[in-house]
Amino acid sequence: MLNYDPDGVPDIDPDALLEAAEFGMRPIHVICEDEGAKDGDLNGVSFVVYVHFVPRPGESIQIEDGTHFRVKNIQYRVSNHNGYKGLVANVYAVKSAEG
């Protein structure tokens, strides 16, 4: 579910969504970029992940390659992807030197 295309739309796998719901989890869309990135820059990554809670501004996210990002902003958007209709958190985070 990783996406390096800044104009890409994240996929929500319906089977994964059902399985996550059994554990009380929901999807969020995470966008990780360098500080100061502009629209269209190809330096970031986005992905959908299933969580029990939405990270808050100021909290740290460490992705699988070990890179740390600091949550800057959260926007909620009504989503209709792969039959999933709902309010999805879009978490925007920027690269940080440490967690």
Please trace the helix and strand order, writing H or E for each element: HEEEEE
Residue share in helix = under 10%
Q: State the major sheet.
A: 5 strands, mixed
- The rounded distance between the terminal residues' Cα atoms is 23 Å
Side-by-side strand order of the widest sheet: 2-1-5-4-3
Broad shape: globular
The stretches of 5 or more residues where confidence is low (pLDDT under 50) are none
Total of domains:
1
Number of helices: 1
What does this structure look like?
The protein is mainly beta. It has one domain. It is 9% helix and 45% strand. It contains 1 helix and 5 strands; from the N terminus they run αβββββ. A hairpin with a 5-residue loop joins β3 and β4.
Question: Descriptors for this entry?
Answer:
globular; five-stranded mixed sheet; 99 residues; mainly beta; 1 helix
Write the layout of secondary structure elements.
Elements: H1 14-22, E1 26-33, E2 45-51, E3 60-62, E4 68-81, E5 84-96
Summarize the structure.
The protein has 1 helix and 5 strands; from the N terminus they run H-E-E-E-E-E. The protein is mainly β and 99 residues long.
